[in-house]
Amino acid sequence: MKTDIRAKIASEVNDLLSGPIYGLGEELDKNPLDFYTMGILYPRLQQTPDFDDDLPEFTTAPDVDKEESFDAQDLPESDSGKRMRSSLENNGFSEPDELELTTKFRPSAAGISVLTKKNPSLTLNVKFGFYTKKQSDKTEANGHAIKKIVWKHQHHSQQIIITNGITEGATESDSKGKISTISLGDRALLSVVTRPYRHTPDLEIKTFTLINKRNSPNFRQQKKTEDCLFQPEITADNAAGFEGFEDLTNLKLLSKEDLNLKLLYRNYKTWALGHGISVEWDEYDSSVKSVRTAVMPAEKVNGVDLNPEVFHERNVLYIKRLAGKSEEASYSRDIIKAELEEFVKLYQSWIENQYSMTSNDSALPEELRAQALVNLKSCSTLAERMNNGIKLLFSDPEAEKAFQDANRAMFIQRVMADFSRHRREMKRVQHNKPALDDAMPDYRLIPFNATAGSLWNSGVLDINADTVRKGTLARWRPFQLAFLLSQIEGITDIQSADRDTVDLIWFPTGGGKTEAYLGLTAFTIFYRRLKFKKTNPDSGAGVSVLMRYTLRLLNKQQFERASIMICACDLIRRNEPENYGSKRISNGIWMGSSMTPNKITTQVSDYGNFITQINSGRLPDTHRTSPPLLSCPCCGNRLVKENLAGSVTGRWGYFRKKNSRNLETGAYLIGCTNTLCHFHVSSSTLNSRADYTLPVYEVDEVIYEERPSLLFSTVDKFVQLAWNSTCFNLFNTAFTNGNIQRIYPSPDLIIQDELHLISSALGTIYGVYEIVVDRMCREAGGNIAKVVGATATVRNAAQQCLRLYGRKGFMQFPPPGTDADDSFYAKKIKGNDPKNRLYVGLMPSGTTTSTALIRLVSVLMERIPAIPESNKDLDNYYTLIVYFNALKELGRFRTFLTDDIVAYRKLLANEFKTFIRPFDQHMLCELSSVMTSDEITTGLDKLEKTTLPGGADQTHPLVQFLYRSGIRSFPALRSAKGSRWNDELMTEKFFKDIGLEFTDDSKKNYSELMALVARLMPGEDEPIQIAPATNMISVGMDIPRLNTMIINGQPKTSAEYIQASSRVGRESPGIVFTFLSPTKNRDRSHYEKFKAFHQAYYSYVESSSVTPFSRPALEKVLPTVLIALTKSLFLDGNDGIFDGSGSDFRAFIDDIMLDIINRGTGIYGQAAGSEIAHTVNEIKEEFLGKTEDLPGNRRLAKYMDFLQPDPLGGGFMPTLQHHTAVYNAPAQFVESVLSDHIPTMQTLRNVEVSSAVSIKNQ
Predict the structure, then answer these.
(1) Could you give the residue range(s) of every CATH 3.40.50.300 domain in the chain?
(2) C-alpha dihedral (347, 351, 353, 356), degrees to nearest 10
């Protein structure tokens, strides 16, 4: 089982980094400090030198904490404290109290604090180990005995009884019994400190601290192994149960947001506090009777049940049943209507039950009760919106048809995805054999309750009894259907309050947010075309939905995912032109030039180079843009050729049309290479079957012309509106005869995924620039778009959305109820969750973080391949993601990979008798912002699709031997080194065991062996083994086979930690090693409170802060906003010269500024409105002052006005040659040399003003 593999991985790490490797009483040939990194208590050092925590530590050079933390609960300077210090002095201690010893870089103590009733009866069990040198007689393989010095593990275990508050066997105690010490042999002692709990008189705090008795005369000898304690553990048992540390915040002083969190997470308590070590406990029926320290704490974070039991027998969730008669012959309108209404009633019944429980909960403080009622009122509002949506569906024929076909499209895209997955697994997607081409299935034949992965037999639809076993292929999760129903009114009625409400999908990572808003996207696209069905459905074409992200990685991945749904929609349109017109339903990706080409000429050049390089057997140039899709969204066929086993294989799916002279012309189009696919075209049929190409566009020039139905972009790309008039086409407008006209309805829906990333500086700038987007949607008879956000981690969302979008309403979906674990649509799984994520905490003791990280990574890379499991199961854990908070840290790690990690892996290989694997760059895939878009795309593709080879005969002794030796593929054996070759593999005995003839010819033996391995372990592929990454992956990377991760240091925010760690454990149980630094107070705090944090980590998410109407933000962005709106609304797309001092221009700017002031006043209130107006008017006068003072009539600058070809390096370089002809210039030029111009931003990211630094001669 996969959970067994995960447990073995955690066990390997614990054994090798904490010990004992070989169990109690082990004998080690090497110094234990060469292996063990955590849970070490060193002898006490009188003075603490400085150290450098950045470098690996392979010597005993000084390396102690620069940034020592002091525990908040240190003993006070009282009589009892002095007596305790006296006690410690009698045992050789004279400096600070024992809790301070836990905070040292090389700690000498570890402790735990608990809250109990006064004078409790407790049982303590204290354990630790230590090592002594001894001479050991070892027998070699040849039978000879040799004498060897080894390190012998000694285990100490002692039970201590506390009866009615009195510690039995205490060697020292103050007069009141508040401080006691117990000797634990000649190496350690235990201190027991009792303090009153000032908040509750009948409770007291007890702190138990294990202290190393030994002294060290100097720093170098502090790492004397014989004086160190290993594997410390304190367990405290209380038959009466411990008390939880309460959060005693005054509820009356809390904000609504904080009060809501107190309500939702009120049942999660902290039952123990760690000091220099972490703590764990087991809670049963809200009671904890045993707590313990943990060197390597582990907490399982269960997922949520996305299909609660109340929905198990509800057929309304099957997507195909909602798709109408065209897809489901048994469709009954009345039955579906009744089922949808019953679906909402289930939610209403839950709300009523929550009201009842809240009213009857006498223990609930009034402040929390009031907040619970506020939450339940929001739940009732959601139920009302869902009911309104149902009424609209069955009273508006266009809405009903759009809803049915949206479900139809979602069903088809689920089938497409399942079909593609099957064909990839059967290796039918990349070949030169038309016989392996597979026809698309008849979707009408597929049962509505079909099971994913059970429909196909070698590419052919094969329906059998297993097909409908689980019904997992195409079923809405309850919250997805509820969300879709709640959005119907906001899309269909532009005057409704819902249209002006920002709806935020707040759901755990991996819960299905993307599917929810893809379903809404399909509905929106279909509905706007159906509105014009009686005249011309094409009148509802154009950009219907704007999908915006902040990170290019996420944009690219979601674009590929949405392309499946768009293909399904266009297939429906192709079959129903009378309803949906002849204009294709299409998908576009509008990003920077590093990801997608801006011009057709660039695309032709870059793709042509890509094709030439691949055809020649070479790798493509990573500094050029590469094709946006590598596989067909419809059937999975590869669209590009690949070099497989030394041969270029496959067919090209990228073609250009040919003109009358048979010469290629225009941009590359994409057609599926599967001759039986819905979207197959070839170079010979392209001209006549252009409507059959894949409906995706990635070139800016093509996007401006085609106006794709769904447009993906980064938020940063919209700054182009200030530089390129053609960009305004994306709002479905056109400039005709000097006027702006609307040729299609304005976009109906804006989706902002990962809303938590729109915060801080970026969010502030984005909030100001959103004025342009909002105005362009409303211009020329347009309407405001419905705004939908999505995130898994957000706090203070209502205020954030109000400031970003200036809308009147906000609703979180689903609204919180009265408990974080139950929102009706998602319930936290209690007990065993087979897909839970295991978080494991690590904090080194006395070694630098670099050394500890090297050891941790080495252990995982070396020991995971040697776990005795099949390749199929082990593949889910084979690739290690290492997450860094900064590029600097990742860069240093790259150096470790090729040097220090190789050396430590060799040590481990020799210890465990496995093969030595040299570092190979092909085993590495970096995912960071320094990588080119092509490298990221290629890396993600390999991470997802290249797996450990299957098909090995696992019963064969050779395969079993290689697996135990860490060899998982034929290429891995070819590169393996070490003594294991001659000592075990290339021996007469082993050859006999595996059925080969052993000869005196070593070359022949090797050839015979490798030929057998090739037969037993077929396949040339070897997956990525390690992928260092930065926060680029914290959202959007959804690769099911990735389930092992290290997070190096606590990220800056809890949201980033949750998002990043959620990249693993998507479909299999994942494991996350949180590697924390002892020299950083925040890291240490997370380690000591590891369990308390992880059991409710969503409650720790920080508030998002955006201040779009602050003076610095307005000064920075408003000039760019005015330039963009001047281009579109005043100049109507005309890039010619105009009079910047004219009264009509001033009147135009006055109107824009009034709109901005009204927006700011609506967000911040009337009181702040006057200050906003004052700031805005000052910026307006400065802006107009520049247009009036610059000599002569000028024009607004274009992007290329400040660039010129670079004759040396290629590309472009900055120039100022056109500055006298324009009013505005890039902001960086205005800051330096063009101070009389209007600063215009070219990006929304680099918002800090540059500072000039000059060095003067002394």
Answers:
(1) 838-948+1026-1074
(2) -170
Measured between alpha carbons, how far is 300 from 58 in angstroms, rounded to an integer? 34
Query: Whole-angstrom Cα distance, residue 231 to residue 37?
Result: 11
Cβ contact 710:545 at 8 Å = yes
With beta carbons less than 8 A apart as the criterion, state whether 446 and 464 touch.
Answer: no
Q: How far apart are CA 752 and CA 748, in angstroms?
A: 13
Provide the token pair at 131. Answer: 């090592």
Whether the Cβ atoms of residue 976 and residue 916 lie closer than 8 Å to each other: yes
Report pLDDT for 141: 55
Residue at 253: amino acid letter: L
The region, left, alpha or beta by phi > 0 then psi within -120 to 50, assigned to residue 1019 is left
Beta strands (DSSP E) in 814-967 are 827-828, 837-842, 880-884
Continuous H helices in 806-886: 849-863, 871-878
**pLDDT given for residue 143 in this prediction:** 62
> In CATH, what is the architecture of 838-948+1026-1074?
3-Layer(aba) Sandwich (3.40)
C-alpha 853/C-alpha 38 separation (Å) is 11
DSSP state string for 1115-1160: HHHHHHHHHHHIIIIISTT--S-B-TT-HHHHHHHHHHHHHHHHHH
Examine the pLDDT at 56 and tell me if it is beyond 80.
no
Assigned token pair, 795: 């706090």
Q: Range with the lowest mean pLDDT among 928-937, 1148-1157, 1226-1235?
A: 928-937
Strands 44-45, 215-216: pairing kind = parallel
85 pLDDT band (50/70/90 cuts)?
A: very low
Cα distance between residue 800 and residue 1101, in whole Å: 14
Q: How far is CA 1125 from the centre of its chain?
A: 36
- The answer on pLDDT for 1022 being more than 90 is no
Instruction: Check whether 681 has a pLDDT greater than 60.
Output: yes
Other residues' Cβ atoms within 10 Å of the Cβ of residue 230: 24
- What is the four-CA torsion angle of 1022, 1023, 1026, 1032, rounded to 10 degrees? 150
Cα distances (Å, whole numbers) of residue 1143 to 1020, 1148, 1183, 1186, 1222: 73, 9, 14, 15, 19
Cα 1168 to its chain centre, rounded Å, is 38
Q: Which residues, including other chains, have CB under 8 Å from residue 921's CB and lie 6 or more apart? A: none
The DSSP output letter for 1056 is: H
pLDDT single digits (tens) 8-45: 999 999 999 999 999 999 999 999 999 999 999 999 98
Q: Write the DSSP symbol of residue 1025.
A: -
> Can you tell me the distance from the alpha carbon of 610 to that of 1001, in angstroms, rounded to the nearest whole number?
46
When pLDDT is cut at 50, 70 and 90, the band that residue 142 belongs to is: low
Q: How far is CA 563 from the centre of its chain?
A: 21
Q: Which two tokens stand for residue 1036?
A: 């959007």
Identity of the residue numbered 1177:
N
The pair of three-digit structure tokens given for residue 1055, joined into one six-digit string: 């949201």
Whether residue 219 contacts residue 211, with contact meaning beta carbons closer than 8 Å, is answered with no
Q: Which of 87-91, 186-190, 709-713, 975-979 is least confident?
A: 87-91
pLDDT digits (tens, 9 = 90+) for 501-536: 999 999 887 788 999 999 999 999 999 999 999 899
Q: Is the pTM of this model over 0.85?
A: yes
Rounded CA gap, 654 and 676, in Å?
Answer: 17
Which helix (DSSP H) or strand (DSSP E) does residue 350 occupy? Answer: helix 333-360
The answer to whether the bond into 297 is cis (omega within 30° of 0) is no
Amino acid at 205: I
Which segments within 637-766 are labelled E, that is strand? 642-644, 647-649, 654-658, 664-670, 696-697, 710-714, 733-736, 739-742, 749-753
Tell me the per-residue pLDDT of 839-852, one tens digit each, with 9 for 90 and over: 999 999 999 999 99
> What does the pLDDT read at residue 328?
76
Interatomic CA distance for residues 472 and 492, integer angstroms? 31
905/903 Cα distance (integer angstroms):
5
